[in-house]
Batch of 3 targets.
Target 1
Amino acid sequence: MDLSLDETQQMLKNTAKDFFATECPETHVREMENDKDGYNKQLWEKIVNQGWLGVPFAEKYGGFGLTFLEFCILLEEAGRVLLPEPLFHAVLLGGMPINIFGNEKQKDELLPKIISGESIATLAFHEEDDSILPSSIQCQASMSTNGYTISGTKMFVPFANISDMIITIARTGDKDTDLSAFIIPSTAEGISISELSTISSDKQSVINLDNVQIPATNILGQKNKGWELVEQIFSFGAIGKSCEMLGASEKVLEGTVEYAKTRTQFGRPIGTFGEIQRHCSEMATIVEGTRFVIYEAAWKLAQNKNAKKEVSMAKSWTSDSHKKVCAISHQVHGGIGFTKEHWVQLYSRRAKAAEIAFGDGNYHREKLSKLLGF
Amino acid sequence: MRFAFTEEEDNFRDEVRKFLKSELPNNWDGVAGNNLEEGASDKEWDFALEMRKKLADKGWLTMAWPNEYGGQNASMMKQVIFAEEMTLARAPGRDGFGIRMLAPTLMIHGTEAQKTQYLPDIAKGNVQWCQGYSEPESGSDLASLQTRAVEDGDDFVINGTKVWTSSAHRADKMFILVRTNPEAPKHRGISFLLIDDMKSEGIKVNPIIDMAGRHNFNMVTFDNVRVPQKNLVGELNRGWYVGATLLDFERSGVEYSSRCMALLTELIEFAKTNKRGGKYISEDPNITKEITEIYTEINVSRGMSYKIADMQSNGEVPNKESSMSKLFGTVLEQKVADLGMQILGMYGQLGPESKHNKLKGKIEQEFLSSVSATIAAGTSEIQRGIIATRGLGLPKP
């Protein structure tokens, strides 16, 4: 049992913290809320140049040869500043499915492009029925002479607007779990992408696939084994999101305590009042408890150990805890906190989006209760 | 980062488990599902002392002590494992007052004579200490304590009242905070004394029965009790700081999560194997939702105590971390007890004495004794104050 970071991890954390503090101030987050692409290309290039898109990938593809755990450390720091750039998506939803399920040819060809930022891939799973079940997938992939023909509608696809590859989950057989993953170029004929307007002002899209033709070699992983990919990537996604929430929670706690020290009412700082101290100590305790459950799951995932219980514990806990931290922060801030100009609402809007991504609290409690034998 | 135990640690855990399995009676269940020390009957207490001697012989009681005092300088994680296994097995015999609190304080502040006189008996499990801190008018505001000690020849003469004194009726000796200078600011007129014999003339121990019907707490009165001056620990009027050192030797608090897990495991088993209204209790979605929430929170609580152990391993002194762990862990104890009540339905109101009870009536006992969890050893309100002011740097009210 050792909860400390090793030298490499600590260095990565420090570098990332400093980098994001300089490069991603609140003004940048606000600017990207209204940006056409939702990210800044110059900043993206700087992130690419840090090599961070290659953190969990092998050196032969141009990666760092580290693990998912180290990537989580990065995500925590990105979450602290609400980084709008698609670091999470490019690595976790684009690179990792290819790295884990791709064949050698796909990995040789695609991973270097993803790591160097030349290419961005994303994952299209959700459909009209938004539950995370194999039966929600209605998108059809049928065999044709040259490969597959894919038709259907994908919902809530993150950063589809800037991705050149969409890893799409589609139905390839009659059984519930007869699903497969396909790498579809976003320029393919028959694809139309329309953006959604979301609570967190991020970039999610609806993708319509109308008889999209792709070669048979674009299948990712084995045919009818797509659900395995979804389950694995959603586990990584749940923990990656939790790390972002952890960083955000820490920032909200710091900012709220700072406000309680400086805001005066009745002639003294509000932080002297018992009710406010109670709020702040509650936040601090929640945040303190969050780190361990997340990193225990991250470590187990990185070590390829069975982490099913830990993932569900971490995501159900963090989904709720981060929401609570934001709610308490609003209470301490009073009126100013719910104005557009204030920073807290930037966090609380994104807290909602993170809570429901990759399974909300109830979804993971349900999973956990099955794992406990109920 | 590594979220697994080493092979050596796993082996040690096995050793403790095997030992407890062989030493505890079959189907051992603790008392009221809990550890024995608190509120034990005479017979249970005798068994606890027997276990304490055996644990002492194994060297496990003192494993955290430095080598020079006969300890093993054991790693924090090893101590955590020992505490986890003892708590999971609901095994009695640990010594919170002597081993964990007083001994480390003497190692720092005691004279050579005091160390020689007191440490060996503590190490062997020969002596029971109790802690004279709280008073009727000094609860959360401990530093306002009024029990008076006046120098008289070679002695101090003590007059006053201590309260909530756990196990005073079992104790041989007491360490006590007394006021030696009523003129000085409240923190600077307190001294730390050792009372060698609880049977001394002038000491009266009056039982306080708790709402679970158990006798653990006492009120202790002092009427001209004489204590030799050589029993002063540290400097005169600096006792507050000696006493504060003692608080730094707090446990990592892993007991909270282990105790909760022991009980939750039983409750899960019970819910899966017992029916109400023709359905297994575990088929009630309200119950399973709460079980999964609490299961997760127990893991969160365990993480908080591992963090404290990790800090101590790295030579850091936990402060707000201990308060957070206590705050979270004690609320959790109440939640598990309340969940148990829900699972047992009408049977939750039956205690150990009822022949109709389920789970030996221990849930009723747990429920009643869990009320004190958020009060004893510093109320939740005091913990929040510590977190807010010392931990987060908010200004004092």
Target 2
Amino acid sequence: MTDNDTPPIATQTDHNPLENVAWEAGVSKPDPILVAHDVTRSFGGLKAVDVDHVEIQRGLITALIGPNGAGKTTFFNLLTNFDNPDTGDRTFNGRSLNNTPAHRVANFGMVRTFQLTKALSKMTVMENMKLGATGQRGESMLAAALPFLWSRQDRAIEERAAGLLQRFKMDHMTGEFAGTLSGGQRKLLEMARALMVQPELVMLDEPMAGVNPALKQSLLDHIKGLKAEGMTVLFVEHDMDMVQEISDWVIVMAEGRIIAEGPPASISENKAVVDAYLGSHHDAPLDLGDLDD
Amino acid sequence: MDWGSIIENTVRGLIGEQAIYFALAALGLNIHFGFTGLLNFGQAVFMAAGAYGLAMTVASEEPHDLILFTIGDGNGFWLGIFMGVIVFPVILALILGIPTLRLRADYLAMVTIATAEIFRLVARTPALDDWTGSSDGLTGFASTFYDWSPFEPRQRYFFNLFQGNQMWVFIIGWITVAIVAFILWLLIRSPWGRVLKAIREDEDAARSLGKNAYAYKMQALILGGVVGAIGGTLRAIGTQSAQPDNFITDVTFFAWVAVILGGAGKVFGPIIGSMLLWATLAFADTFLREGVDAGWVPDWLITGTQVGQVRFMLVGLGLVFLAWRRPQGIFGNKEEMALDDR
């Protein structure tokens, strides 16, 4: 299942690098940034995640979809070390993530957002953004009381944050408490804040949940923008329109396993996928999400 | 009714030694609760660590070898201060924090409230008499401090409010409070303080952005503990004794009242909170006593001996009123508080 003899022809420019990759679950890809192998996680008697092998191609937008309770969010937590698997190896950029604390994962260049947005509501939009920057000298307790050690760096961070806020069209709310933002604005803020980490891989857990239609298009454009800047995006989503529109590759989970992979167009015809969704309402406009964590 | 003595006592409560000790205890607690969201229900034990760190180092009846230090018997005052303000509270914070800070906030609450009582009861044990002085406590460790006093012990200073020694504690105490508050103010508006606030709201969000939440919570626990211990050390110096029953559970809750009154999460809130708490207690005490003596308060309602309890009821009523009219405390920001409900 893991080994497929597709020749990894590097056709970076113009071509889809996954052109020659077979449409099957667990297929290996020419340039994976994230690899999970034999990852399992049980809650009591329930095996929530049981993934044999999956690879995420660098520089593309990959969607992780599946019916409610498929284990997408649990798998997401395992990939980012917010939860520890019972078995399995995860490597990011060739570096093992096993036994790495969650905060170190972010420093490696892999940042995640949450299904229930974690905008820090009692901090201003700007404070939220500045929190995202890594390697801040002023975050050490000993240096913190001596502003001259970090104030220049802090100003540079603030400038970068202001630039990002402008790009996300939130520069008019810099000084407002994040708690006063709407649901969609919080999603935008969370995404902008994640970019402050300067990640290589951005993992978005249901970026469209609770976002009004007017903001959806802008969110989609921002996600495409991440790819244009060379970042890799992996996102969990229920909204099939969004999946069709922006993803380069789709991975389908059901009952904890990867059941199918392929370009978005191939997925809706895949029999295993249709079976997994049968009776479910995957094209409903909004879903409150699976509660499997 | 002697309004002069009512005002005098109230002012003494407002700026006197108790306000100083509890301002420091509350400043420390505010780092724990106000900025980091740690539920410490044992701030008394950090104060006790400060008091006993000094007292045991300088004045244990017999010398005892600890691993690095010999305590008791002829140690200098400065080593005692170092033990009370740094060594004891840091070790205590590590003991409290290592097992609990990876868990939910309520575990720290349980462990701290229990540890505070365990420490007090152990310090009372007659078996440890030559270490802690058991229930009598330790005395005679603060003379160096008063040797430096420029004030005449028998004279009264500052509008006759304080005797010479009290005056010296008063001055050094408020200078200490000012320095500590200034350092905390610097810390809180730094990127370090920003991480603490993020952890208070959502630890996972902070971790997803690469912040080691556990390490930050430990730093906050240690820092707040050290500040509380400074209060305890000063209290031991001011009363010239370290006694187990000076650190009963009530002490922790006085510090909590000061934090909530002043406004949790505001650097200067706890100082004002502590001043108002002790001013209110002193006012209620003197006012009721004078009222009972003058016959304004009838005997069937309150007798002179009940005043001591009744004043706490009045403070309680005041807190209920505060929670109703101004839940964010005196310095708190109502809009910030309201964001909780969204």
Target 3
Amino acid sequence: MYQFEYHRPKSLDEVTALLARCENPKILAGGMTLLATMKQRLAAPSDLIDLQDIAGMTGISVDAKNVAIGAMTPHHDVATSRDVAGAIPALAFLAGRIGDPLVRHRGTIGGSIANNDPSADYPSACLALGATIVTNVREIAADDYFRGMFETALKENEIITRIIFPIPQRAAYQKFPNPASRYAMVGVFVVKGANGVRVAVTGAGPGVFRMTAMEAALAKNFTSAALEGIAAPAEEMLQDMHASSEYRAALIGVMAKRAVAAMLA
Amino acid sequence: MSSAIIKPNGIGAAAPRKEDYRFITGNGHYTDDINRPGQAYASFVRSPHAHATIDAIDFTDALAAPGVLAVLTGKDVAADGLGGLICGWLVHSKDGSPMKTGAHPILALSHVRYVGDHVAVVIAETAAQAKDAAELVNVSYGELPSVTAVAEARNPAAPQVHPEAPRNTCFEWELGDKAATEAAFKTAARIISLDIANNRLIPNAMEPRAAIGEYDKGTGIYTLHTTSQNPHVARLVLSAFVGVAPENKLRVIAPDVGGGFGSKIFIYSEETVCVWASKKAGRPVKWVADRSESFVSDAHGRDHQTHAELALDANGKMLALRVKTIANLGAYLQLFSASVPTYLYATLLSGQYDLPAIYCEVDGVLTHTAPVDAYRGAGRPEATYVVERLVETAAREIGMDPAEFRRRNFIRKFPHQTPVIMAYDVGDYEASLNEACRLIDYANFPVRKREAEARGMRRGIGFSAYIEACGIAPSAAVGSLGAGVGLWESAEVRVNPTGSVEVLTGAHSHGQGHETTFAQLVSDRLGIPIENVEIVHGDTDKVQFGMGTYGSRSGAVGMSAIQLALDKIITKARKIAAHVLEAGEGDIVFEDGRFTVAGTDRGMAFAELALQAYMGHKFPTSEIEPGLKETSFYDPTNFTFPAGCHIAEVEIDPGTGTVRVVKFVAVDDFGNIINPMIVEGQVHGGVAQGIGQALLENAVYDPQTGQLLSGSFMDYCMPRADDLPSFDVGVTVTPAPSNPLGVKGCGEAGAIGSPPAIINAITDALGIRDIAMPVTPERAWRAANGL
């Protein structure tokens, strides 16, 4: 790790001022990716601006229509929230399967979707549930937010403050973890709600994406059998030492069917 | 040695581990917990290339960086006349020529030969300053093509690792009777053959390697604190071969060490540099590997490619075994590199079977990868994998039950001379097979398989009846096979005047629980509480000499030395007791910690006797020296041969390829057992590592660039608790006749026996002939779906 200055502001205004003043700042929202990268000397920010003391950025609120989660809420809080479990159990299930207990106590939902790792879990929930990403300057629909590998619609110095998930009729997440890293090798989030059926896939491609062919088939016939023969394009999937693109494509089908089966159980 | 009654904390008792309190409460003293006054820090400049020339090293900027005390390169090492690192085992090729390899410099001189090779060291006031400055060392490399896989290394066009080893061939070694084997194959009714790879592993001890070198200007004595499994061997190599200091001017201390698995046997560049640089910098020098450094620079394990054939007669009786192995040695030979794929491998190819003829050829090949050396099991897992994969495949192909096929071929008469050097002294292989079958309920496996099929899962069962040679070993025997050292062990038992005891042992504990098991032996023999026994190890100033801990040798060899020293203590104490109690020596009975005169109520406790020994008032010191301290150097008469049977049951999800180990039975014959709880723990750890090899772990180098792709836990998959089932562990006992305790050794058996059991279960579940380790979900998915 290289030397850096550490800041712990109390308000978003202070954050904005620090971002303007510092030479090469980075926002710290848990740091589960950033700190590891810095330890490997692959990132060298001049300043770290830790958001954990900013009022109003942590916590969960649920009403009849939405689950709203503060950007600095750690995964553990989402995983163990009775309100989340009551409103969108699949979201609590997903949060409980991120990383390990240490990661779940430090890592945050805002940090996860700001980083947009192609094998992170939360982006699939955001996209499938049609979440709204609230920042310090605007609201962004999940459909417009994720822009491919590690890329998002966030502008420079824009800070996520909250994520709002509409409560669906039903939802399920099925994750096939990479055996080593436990990130999603393939994760499929299926939602049946007011906006119809949405199927979002993480881990398999260069960023989270929707399987529209599956959505159409499920809209007509919401059974696992309806997904038979619907394949993801293998040539567009990721390939690494753990899994070929062909295997990842096949896993999407298997995980989607299992998610649907879980929703019908 | 089988005492009918187990004393509290005596031999056979599941005594709680004496060392655990300090480990669990964070009060251990690992090398990184130790800090010396004025300590500076080292950071190594490592090669980013698998193969390159070093054209120039410019460290002007590094030297000017904040806190930097020195920057040292291979030129400084050469100027000081230091030797390189050595391989302590000499192997000869079939043509009689000695193995061929290049020098292994402490810091590279003209070439780098693997990613992570040591090029220079920066010494600075803080670890962060040393790392920052190391990045400022500007090395001009002339990049060269590299070769990392054994399959290509011997291609005449392949890049050369060392000019001294043409076609990257270190040795072409053989063992066994070629003519007899060929003849047996000609008469065979059936020949079963397999091409088998044993995947390359990275050890990953929980504590990374670390060292503090220190030089005392006043006395000229160097002290090295380091993460070593064998501090005396480290001192011997550093003085006699590297020449960094004379043996009497070098103290090596291996304090608490957090796991080794073989990787901390070897003498590496970094530890050596810390000693040498401490004088040059005039400051104690500390280095602690980070995990990424451990991945690239610790010696790796395994990495074999093998073609094996088994000849059978018409009745399913084994006639002969023919094996051809190519072993990847890495870029340089480490301390035992040459012995692992030869004498520690081919000598176990007879397995538990009465095999009349065996012929094995092993080609040791150099590549542009990290050195490969002993890793938990060292050669024996590779041998067991070949034999047990082949045996299971043969049983299936001749349509015989795999348990029955093994029974038909077991060695049943002992001693048994195998065709590959080893003389098995004792064993009962059918007993462990039968017990394992009972524990796993083999008879009802078909019911479980059908039940799994109803859930859409494919269930399979696999056997592994392993044998290993442990307790290495008789010095004359290993000497005749090329070892550069003897493999005895020493013990010194010091009885204090108050009757408490210190045992100084040449063995080293880095997870094995010696402080408990060794103390149990002393407590049992002397009849004193275990709390009154202190086990001292890991310091060359305290323990006179020792060969260290590896090869499951510390029980059979190290404890036997203690046992013999205790015999001497008791013999002398009995003489003293006779004088003090005014009786004939023949009338003195020593039992439960008391010396008594037979048939009387006259007696004294061990502690009273100890005080008398040091007072010298009541016995003639002209005949019996005062004091009570004895030493023994014990050299065993044979290897020990732990053996057993592992049976695995797996379930495979054909949709995803996920392999779950649902049942795992290990029944082992370790001879007599000192502490069943510690033995079971060793089995659990070993089986976890074996399942890791079979399902999860794989060291992957990029074939084009020679970069280590699996260089972190993000990609190198260590087994975790949820990857493993609850193990069902059983024992059978045939006491080892080659040592006074009848113990055999248990440290490596789990890692040796388990991989073939897992792969045999997977191939059974999927109805396939072979599958490569590690069986990743994708590999299983492809096999399950015929892809």
